[in-house]
Amino acid sequence: MKKTFLQTLGPGLLFAGAAIGVSHLVQATKAGAEFGFGLLWALLLVHLFKYPFFQFGPRYAAATGETLLEGYQKLGKGVLMAYYILNFATMFTIQAAVTIVTAGLASQLFGITEDLTIWSAMLLLISATLLIIGRYKLLDNLMKYIIITLTLSTIVAVTVAFFSTKNAFDITQVLPSGTGEITFLIAFFGWMPAPLDIAVWHSIWSIEKNKNTGLKTTPKAAIFDFNIGYLGTLFLGICFVMLGVLVMHHSGEIFSEKGGEFASQLIHLYTKNLGEFFYLFIAIAAFTTMFSTTLTTFDASPRAMEQTTQLLFSNKTKLNYWFWIACLFLGTCLILKYGRDNMGFLVKIATVLSFLTAPFYAILNYTLITGKHTPKEHQPNIYVKILSLVGILFLVAFSIWFLSSI
Questions:
Q1: DSSP state, 253?
Q2: Which parts of 179-304 are beta strand (E)?
Q3: Does 93 reside within a domain?
């Protein structure tokens, strides 16, 4: 029974693997460290209002047998071109941001070298090898065990932290003020639980799973699979906020903007507060969090660029999946070699840009799933439609608030 249940899961766990990364390990932990439980409202709201737009990815794929990219093309070539430009503009920075944090953790965990550029290149090569050898099937199977390991080790870490802490804390909710705090909140919204364009990746993985299994996933099964992954991202988001509160809040530590140094601070604080015995649980939780994101983003961005290129240029190009893998590898390494000391700034730009473009993806996904290109019987019910419209208002309102505050 258990095996059958695990076999039914797939793209939803890949979504979770891509989502649970910098947003959780870095931003959720920092939120807990700097605001206590004061930003729990933000964590819950952003999960609620982004939910329908993420769900529309697997829903559309199951209902039509197409990816969201093919749907965007039906909405107009200009729409697809806008996606192409946005994705190309951000994919290198996003990959660099998640890889440098993973490299910092790998350096702490395995040693070998302290040069994070070398570690980053090694991790990307390992990811490329896994994708070359196993393609989607290996990625799908591997992610199930990574997510299970991540969840169990995180639960252990939170439990130990809860019983070890001697600090009092309250749950008073706060609204950030000042440019710095507001920028952090918008960045938090941008990547929590993930940028909205991951819905595109999810639709691509859904179609790929159908090809690998030879079975067509029903919309009901696709939404169930997505809900499992989405609830997992929410649960682990709360866990990482708790870790930030229990281990880092009032620690007096000033957290570095550099991915590698932040990783070192993270491990050090956990070990100091929880004891050397639990170092391995903390290290495994942190490393699996970031490696899952490094691996899934390294697969998804090239898949999205390959299909967008083919749709825009009518399959006349040789810019295939492996070309974009190589392109992403080289671009990421260049950013890490020459810009790793400014990674905090680059991450901030990427996260803020992700939030400011969120209304664009939200409106596109809503238009597609409620329009003529989706069969009526597979369109969302009235409650999901209302939630979607409120979510669009939420994303637009906070974007305007941010732009008027800087």
A1: -
A2: none
A3: yes
